[in-house]
Amino acid sequence: MMTDYSHYADDELVQLMSKDDHNAFTEIYNRYWKRLYVLAYDRLRSRELAEDVVQDVLTGLWQRRNHTVIRSLPAYLATANRYAVFSQFSKMVPVTAVEALPEAIQAVADDTAEVHFLEQSMQEQLKQLPEKCRLVFDYSRNKGLSNREIATELKISEKAVEKHITKALQRLRLQFRNYFHSLFV
């Protein structure tokens, strides 16, 4: 008898996938492929590149299934998708070390302690931001909301959203510039 995975919650599918359940992965693939494609296409404006990004993200999810802790599947996939898009951009145009942050994190992804340190350091920096700035950044980067959606949710202008995101990114760039400079020198 074939199990219907469409009724499983994301966290249940992740748990099953971590136990090498290919059908659970297939359900995740079917559930998220189109969303990831739309996000990638919106940034890249290329069907082929967007398809490549989604394929890389979902292949990476399967390959890391046994050793990656996923608290929120949509947030994890949106973040992985964003990094893969940045990686595509970096292949198209030269980038500075700070703009290559996602690639740098991927480069050290095998060193769990270093990734953990980077995540903690970033969280500490974000905690020091004013509350609204921190909330805007969280909605943008962790929940994948657009500037318009954030503006509507927080009842502020899109320009204010942009300013908050810029402020948060400036703080992160300033904090991590020496660390990432050493990776690219």
TrEMBL record:
GO terms for biological process: DNA-templated transcription initiation. The keyword Lipoprotein does not apply. It comes from the Bacteria. It holds the Pfam family Sigma70_r4_2. GO terms for molecular function: DNA binding; sigma factor activity. This is RNA polymerase sigma-70 factor, ECF subfamily. Keywords: Sigma factor, Transcription, Transcription regulation. Residues 121-172 form the RNA polymerase sigma factor 70 region 4 type domain. Belongs to the sigma-70 factor family. ECF subfamily. It comes from Chitinophaga arvensicola.
